[in-house]
Amino acid sequence: MINIKRYNGEEEFKKTLKLLPIVPTNNEIAEKTGMSKGSISNIMNGKISPSKKFIDKFKIGFNIDDQDFKYNSTEDPDELKDKLISVYEVSLMSAETTIELLRDKIDRLEKEMS
Q: Per residue in 40-79, pLDDT tens?
């Protein structure tokens, strides 16, 4: 009997999310993948399993290359450190953008209330 391993979208997506220092918001995922917020919400809540196509778009949108995160003993540790710093910098910029947007919303609400 041949044992064929089936593609597991949930497992693959969880593995992919672990490559990021912080989990992006549904809005960020929608912007980077072109998927609807409702579909992303269903994926994030485990109601539907993410497709291979979605995961590929996610990886492209968030600049994830599986090979960058697999430690190779021949790889220079400083290069690996630089790659990780780069990933953190991208995540930090994303977080700063989100904070800016939230501050703008708060300012608008405060103006409307006064």
A: 999 988 899 888 899 889 989 988 876 654 544 455 667 7
Task: Please check the confidence at residue 112 and state whether its pLDDT lies above 90.
Answer: yes
Torsion region of 48: left, alpha or beta (phi above 0 gives left; psi -120 to 50 gives alpha): beta
Average pLDDT, the chain: 82
CB 28 within 8 A of CB 94: yes
Nearby residues of 33 by Cβ (< 8 Å), 6 or more positions away: 40, 54, 57, 58, 61
| Backbone phi and psi for residue 28, each to the nearest 5 degrees, phi listed first | -65, -40
- Give the Cα separation of 20 and 16 in Å (integer): 8
